[in-house]
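Checklist before submission:
- one chain only
- standard amino acids only
- sequence pasted in full

Submission:
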Amino acid sequence: MTAKHLHILTGINRTSEPSSGSMILAHDLYRSMPGTRTTFLGRDPVDHAWSAAFDQLIALSTTKRPQGPDFDLYADELTREVGALIEKTRPDAIHAQYLGFALSLAFTRTAGGIPIITIAHGPDVMAAERNERERETLHAVAAASAAIVAPTSALTDRIDRLTGRRFTDRLTVIPWGIPLNDAQARDQPPGTGPLSLVHAGRLDENKSTITAVEALALTDQPHHLTVIGQGSLQEHLEQRAVELGLRDRVKFESFLPRAELWRRLPNFDAFVFTTSGLEAFGLVLIEAQAHGLPVVYSALPSAREILGKTGVPYTPGDPCSLAAALDEMGRGLHRRKALTRAALGNARRYDITNTSRQLHELTLRITSENGTPAA
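Returned file contents:
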């Protein structure tokens, strides 16, 4: 029997480039999804190498006003634009990226009989927990969705509580992944002595990079930390490192494209993950493990679900707990070797081809149940 060929309409209301985890995931996900054609709605400017993952990329023109008193007008204008694009492209299914954001709301208003599968990423859930308007939008999108996908059961539980358990039967877990074939594990065995540590990500309150900086001032061994990324707290973090006398042990580097980050990862001894609030999945955890790095991680529910005993947990937001974990790893060479083996084994569970296959199968099932299977 010939597999059905799906035309999927999706999009993220940002510049069309690999600028965030969700944009990188979308690129990998639809590039590897079997039996589909994908139209992606994004924004100018377009990174043409990145956009090659999609059969068509359409740049949205509605001026963004995601917060404030103009949101309703903005949502109405975006709805009109999206409605015209749906009429033109006539997809078999819509993948609405982010619960509760304006583009997803526009999809729900204009989909008609086209089934919607909504994919939660984390920031959408955090926004709905903080803001009533975002919460109302999330409820509207959830109500219009045939299925709601999240990468961990921890995030589905959070969405379930947030929506008053009205849509429990629509929630499904599909773990994220990375293109494992592109990752190269370190070829040198771990050494002894202080650790060369790396942390990569946005430098904001939720990512809690400050925990790693302050932990270094409490360690028994003079570990070194390289922080790769940028964000609103960068200047504060740099000042704090100086205040703690860590100028020679903490190095800050700008955001790196993924290919360059992956090239650098095998040069370090371990990865430090410090998020203290909500983390939907944490792709960087798998990226680090796929390159053979032991991971010391903030023991959030999603991170525990992904890593379990293949990483070293510490109490979220607690520099003392992190310092103790780092010193223990620095002293235990055999433990580090075992963690390297465990990291590589765990990473193999999260190949992007598995994510694409599961989402494709879910989409086929939803379209069939909806009575509008793809041609």
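Reviewer check: The mean pLDDT is 93.
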